[in-house]
Amino acid sequence: MNLRRWDSAILKSVFFPAFLVLIYTLYEIGLPQDLYSWAGFGLFSLIFLGVYLLFSIVGWLLFGFPVHWLICRYGNGSYFLYFGAAVAFTVVIYIFSGVAETAITYGSFALIQAMLFKYYAYKQVQT
Prior knowledge:
Elements: H1 3-29, H2 35-75, H3 79-97, H4 100-126
């Protein structure tokens, strides 16, 4: 597989969900009306993106890449196996945290990132 395609797939799979969260935040709080509110939203965005990227990088290094390798090696890269891995990740997070909302949040981001990575990494190969 082309490493450049992997880089692009990883960037798209990580940043697209983050962009959706920022859009949803604007939807929930409404468009800021003054400069002070825009500054607050900008600060929130920077903090959110920093923490989100840190968690995403650690998640990809500890779980994403090893699971991707296993799925490609033994499961022919099936979308179903990516979905199963995200569900298993969610269950493990729930076991360790004991909080369903936390597990569902992390599991949802893992699922979205995994599915987008699979799609973008192999989009060119299939055509």
